[in-house]
UniProtKB/TrEMBL annotation:
SUPFAM superfamilies: Mitochondrial import receptor subunit Tom20, SET domain. The lineage of its organism: Eukaryota, Fungi, Dikarya, Basidiomycota, Agaricomycotina. InterPro entries: MAS20 (IPR002056), SET_dom (IPR001214), SET_dom_sf (IPR046341), Tom20_dom_sf (IPR023392). Belongs to the Tom20 family. It is found in: Mitochondrion outer membrane. This is SET domain-containing protein. It is a single-pass membrane protein. Its main location: mitochondrion. Pfam families: MAS20, SET. GO terms for cellular component: mitochondrial outer membrane translocase complex. GO terms for molecular function: mitochondrion targeting sequence binding; protein transmembrane transporter activity. It comes from Hydnum rufescens UP504. Keywords: Membrane, Mitochondrion, Mitochondrion outer membrane, Protein transport, Transmembrane, Transmembrane helix, Transport. GO terms for biological process: intracellular protein transport; protein import into mitochondrial matrix; protein targeting; tRNA import into mitochondrion. Residues 179-505 form the SET domain.
Length: 559
């Protein structure tokens, strides 16, 4: 198993019992299911013909395997798009691999390439690798693994070459701290030895121009609105009476603006967290016994109540992200699973967005989440309760899913959400949000120039997560569609190569607020929420000006 551990470690796959069970099932089916075998046999005949034609070129293969070149060649080959075409391609490739294996060591490389092609289209590649390990000759298997390792490594290392997609006109860059920008100055003070990741423009933008638009990876409606039926629980849109879909007996009281939002939310996470479905160990639907149903309902209600009482969105956002990652695994095993029907393709939230056409690499929800940095949050008793409740909910959907909630992993995911979440506000924000209770240190802050106290909900975004803060930002997040779709708009002319920044906090005084007071609050929020002391030109200028003009600031400066 040592060779697998490399792949697992690089790809970050989580293997759980039911996946192994599925591999065994597939293997069994392959050996015993007559129609499956018949299909394979038919392919063999066609393949025999193909091999005769291709034998001379295969025999002339150089003994030194240039795996990288072979991989590059395979990546250029189009991948079939429909399920039927993929299945056909898969069967043909496996059959070809088997035929080539039978021809002896000279055919090891072409055989491995054929198996590798099959792996590209198989929905659960890790499981297929496990099957190959049992069924393919060692030498061929070794080449398949080498190809896989190269691919996984190149894909992981090439992430920022392919992401964000070219259509977004921005890139994630590691910038030297000495770069002449207000953010760089403050970061240098903060992390002297590090390069920093920043988002830069790839072309010029005029003031007011749209830089990019982006759908969130996860959203949550503010808790004073959730369950009221006034806003969509998925896209956060304000609802009109005629457009509201309210599933009966939903433990969270969620409401949706459209079938599309309901389906997306359901397929990504809601069904696993708050739906009725109960799954058997192989992830197929199970006819639940009444006790299962009652138990599931009880744990769902406890979790929903906990979320509402906590007044915090992070437990719900973490739960949604975990559920989405699990749903993605389940859908690979059982494509028609009721817990995770594949999202309709016309919705922006397909889980393999960010396909890098040039290399054939595709990045998943997991890939994006994995790369986000996180705030280190100390363990608390409340968090233990939170994890326990989520474990109960997941286990009530399918036994064994609680394995996904490991303390450390949970905390990292929560830290990613707390660090990167953006407040979604419409038209400058609302004024009716109840004041956060408790100590300021305990409030959850989101990044928004309108203030967390004015937001309608929270979104976590793949690209906008990389935006740094400036008190005189070059851009602003805006939500002109009245949904969580984020539009990044230029505040001033921006040149290609220039860093894009937003204000994480309200950095202009409201009516009646002094400059000094605004400065004090925003710096306190930045320090508390994202743990940095902003030393931008505005902060410095205000402090200097204040020292000579504003007695209030004088007091502040001397503190
Ligand atoms: C959400 S992350 C921003 C993206 C981050 N640079 C990355 O690599 O993912 C927020 C962190 O970036 C850094 N940062 C952003 N703007 C800053 C600023 N104006 N001054 C100092 N640090 C800043 C701080 O470390 C802050 O905690």
């Amino acid at each position: 198993m040592a060779r697998f551990s490399t792949v697992f470690a690089i790809a970050g796959f989580t293997v759980f019992a039911s996946l192994a069970a599925y591999a065994a099932y597939f293997d069994y089916k392959r050996r015993s299911d007559p129609s499956f075998r018949k299909k394979l046999k038919k392919q063999h005949k066609r393949v025999d013909k193909y091999i005769k034609l291709d034998a001379s070129s295969s025999q002339s293969q150089a003994p030194a395997h240039d795996l990288k070149a072979a991989l590059a060649q395979i990546r250029l080959e189009p991948v079939p798009q429909t399920v039927e075409a993929r299945e056909k391609y898969f069967l043909e490739s496996v059959a070809l691999g088997e035929q080539l294996c039978a021809r002896g060591p000279l055919f090891d490389l072409p055989a491995a390439l054929a198996f590798y092609r099959a792996l590209r289209v198989y929905p659960a590649p890790v499981e297929l690798i496990m099957i190959y390990q049992k069924t393919v000759p060692d030498a061929v298997f070794k080449i398949v693994m080498e190809l896989t390792n190269h691919d996984v490594k190149e894909r992981a290392e090439g992430y920022y070459d392919h992401w964000p997609p070219a259509s977004m006109n921005v890139a994630v860059k590691e910038l030297p701290l000495k770069q002449d920008s207000t953010v760089a100055q403050s970061l240098e003070a903060h992390k002297p030895d590090l390069l920093r990741r920043a988002l830069v423009a790839k072309k010029d933008f005029a003031a007011g121009e749209l830089i990019y638009q982006e759908q969130p990876m996860a959203t949550a409606l503010d808790l004073d609105l959730e369950g009221k039926g006034t806003h969509c629980s998925y896209c956060l849109r304000k609802l009109e009476a005629f457009m509201s879909i309210r599933p009966p007996n939903d433990p969270l009281g969620s409401t949706f603006c459209s079938k599309a939002c309901q389906l997306s939310c359901t397929s990504q996470s809601h069904n696993l967290l708050f739906g009725n479905a109960v799954l058997a160990a192989d992830a197929t639907t199970k006819m639940p016994i009444p006790e299962d149903v009652t138990k599931r309902r009880d744990v769902q209600i406890s979790f929903a109540e906990y979320i509402k009482d906590s007044g915090k969105l992070s437990p719900l956002l973490v739960a949604r992200c975990v559920a989405r990652m699990i749903s993605n695994e389940i859908v690979k095993i059982v494509p028609g699973s009721p817990v995770s029907p594949p999202p309709p393709s016309d919705l922006p939230e397909a889980d393999t967005v960010g396909s890098a056409a040039s290399s054939g690499a595709e990045y998943t929800f997991y890939d994006h989440m994995e790369r986000l940095r996180f705030l280190e949050v100390p363990p608390t008793p409340a968090e233990d309760t939170e994890m326990e409740l989520l474990r109960n909910v997941l286990n009530s959907a399918m036994a064994g899913l609680d394995d996904f909630i490991q303390d450390e992993r949970y905390r990292v995911l929560k830290g990613k959400i707390l660090y990167n979440a953006i407040g979604v506000s419409f038209g400058g924000g609302r004024l009716d949000k109840p004041k956060s209770g408790g100590r300021f240190e305990k409030w959850e802050l989101t990044r928004t120039p309108y203030g967390t106290s004015r937001q309608t909900g929270t979104g976590v975004y793949r690209v906008s997560s990389y935006l740094a803060h400036s008190c005189t930002p070059s851009a602003r997040p805006s939500f002109p569609k009245g949904t969580a779709e984020l539009h990044l708009v230029a505040n001033r002319p921006i040149k290609a190569g220039e860093e894009l920044t937003i204000s994480y906090v309200r950095s202009t005084p409201t009516e009646g607020e002094s400059v000094a007071e605004n400065r004090r609050i925003r710096r306190q929020e930045l320090a508390r929420g994202w743990r940095f002391a902003c030393e931008c030109t505005k902060c410095i200028a205000e402090a200097t000006e204040g020292a000579s003009a504003d007695p209030e600031t004088k007091v502040l400066k001397s503190k």
